[in-house]
């Protein structure tokens, strides 16, 4: 077997195994609040013979989600024989383990050798990131999008072919019907392609794919205008544009710095863990402090290295691999701009639709530091290994904290499902 194949698939296999372990661990500890219960009940009803819902659950903007946001779970229920909430959670987790596997296969099959290390590191970071793992374990519409996003990536990568452009168009419209933020992803990717690679796109294939993939959206679109315009929520604020929240999250979440939103008032308690006997070790505090230092270093040092190369950022970041540069720009720039100009607040779960590009960005920036470093590797590689290791510890610590504390978490997580069943605690 060629050495290049072994050197790729050995770490790839390790990435896949770690991704599976972290997503499948303690399935009974899943979040199970109003949204998750609503979805599970619709799956059970559909399996019992009831008609599929026409629309999904209501959004914060006074409009129902498109029907596909619940149909995807009904399909998962039928395929896997769902009977309990943990069955449905396991099905969702499988889609995300397969998404990591699909990303690894894409990296080996489609990415040129000079950029393959960037994508392999990105897959590793996505596999262990605490926020990604948290969201990949949920019964929630955005949480089942990553596998479809791998298909969107394949199509966008091959947008110069009819099948690729059609796959991109159809896939991104399916994502948009599962999570409405996908509408802005679709707009951002198309707009970026028109600016950066207009002649390299088979636009007829894209139109056809978009029309086919978006056809089920029509009944929803006929009702949404009245629902949203007639009952405004006040969430659209011009000032939201200037928060730049999309890019703030872009520069922090790849480092795994966002589990505080899930724990909220229990975050300080989490930082004390793990406990040895009754004594806190504060390992989680040390790990998070180290991740903050790493995030500041990567961003600041990366900007310093980028400045002398500002007229040729694409070559500096991705070398001769223009496809990676354009795809990264479409998500970091196109999607970000499309979301920001809506004046809507940028919710954390919207960032799940960037999969895997926040991690591609982090890996690409870090790997531009080729100075001799530690462990016999270049400094950028060594830094990524440190970040990866810290995130493994942080994710394991987060999952362990939830498993150990079978009570209502004083944050967005609420009460783990196991505690609801075994102790009769309320969801929140």
From TrEMBL:
Keyword Nucleotide-binding part of the UniProt annotation: no
Record flagged with keyword Transmembrane: yes
Domain of life, per lineage: Bacteria
Keywords, comma-separated and alphabetical: Membrane, Transmembrane, Transmembrane helix
Chain ranges passing through the membrane: 6-27, 118-135, 141-158, 165-195, 282-304, 325-344, 380-402
Name the UniProt record assigns to this protein: Glycosyltransferase RgtA/B/C/D-like domain-containing protein
Organism expressing this protein natively: Frigoriglobus tundricola
């Amino acid at each position: 077997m060629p050495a290049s194949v072994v050197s790729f698939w050995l770490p790839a296999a390790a990435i896949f195994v770690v991704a599976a372990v972290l997503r499948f661990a303690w399935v009974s500890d899943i979040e199970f609040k109003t949204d998750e219960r609503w979805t599970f009940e619709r799956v059970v009803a559909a399996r019992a013979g009831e008609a599929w819902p026409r629309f999904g659950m209501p959004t914060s903007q006074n409009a129902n989600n498109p029907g596909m946001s619940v149909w995807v779970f009904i399909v998962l229920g039928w395929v896997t024989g769902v009977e309990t909430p943990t069955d449905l959670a396991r099905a969702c987790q499988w889609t995300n383990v397969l998404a990591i596997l699909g990303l690894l296969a894409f990296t080996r099959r489609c990415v040129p050798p000079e950029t393959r290390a960037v994508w392999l590191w990105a897959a590793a970071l996505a596999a262990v990131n605490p926020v990604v793992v948290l969201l990949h374990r949920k019964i929630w519409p955005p949480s089942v999008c990553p596998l479809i996003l791998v298909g969107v990536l394949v199509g966008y990568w091959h947008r110069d072919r009819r099948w690729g452009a059609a796959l991109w168009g159809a896939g991104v419209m399916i994502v948009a019907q599962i999570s409405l933020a996908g509408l802005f992803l679709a707009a951002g990717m198309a707009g970026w392609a028109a600016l950066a690679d207009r002649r390299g796109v088979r636009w007829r294939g894209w139109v056809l794919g978009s029309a086919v993939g978006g056809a089920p959206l029509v009944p929803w679109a006929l009702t949404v205008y009245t629902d949203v315009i007639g009952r405004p929520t006040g969430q659209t604020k011009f000032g939201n544009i200037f928060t730049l929240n999309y890019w703030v999250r872009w520069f922090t979440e790849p480092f795994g710095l966002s589990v505080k939103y899930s724990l909220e008032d229990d975050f300080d308690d989490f930082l004390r863990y793990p406990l040895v006997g009754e004594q806190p070790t504060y390992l989680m505090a040390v790990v998070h402090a180290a991740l903050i230092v790493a995030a500041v270093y990567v961003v600041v040092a990366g900007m310093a290295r980028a400045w002398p190369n500002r007229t040729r950022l694409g070559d500096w970041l991705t070398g001769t691999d223009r496809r990676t540069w354009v795809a990264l720009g479409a998500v970091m720039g196109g999607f970000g701009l499309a979301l920001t100009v809506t004046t809507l607040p940028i919710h954390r779960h919207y960032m799940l639709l960037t999969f895997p590009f926040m991690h591609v960005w982090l890996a690409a920036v870090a790997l531009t530091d080729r100075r001799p470093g530690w462990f016999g590797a270049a400094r950028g590689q060594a830094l990524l290994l440190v970040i990866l290791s810290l995130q493994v510890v942080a994710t394991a610590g987060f999952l362990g904290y939830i498993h150990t504390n079978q009570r209502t978490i004083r944050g967005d997580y609420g009460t783990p499902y196991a505690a609801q069943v075994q102790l009769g605690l309320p969801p929140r």
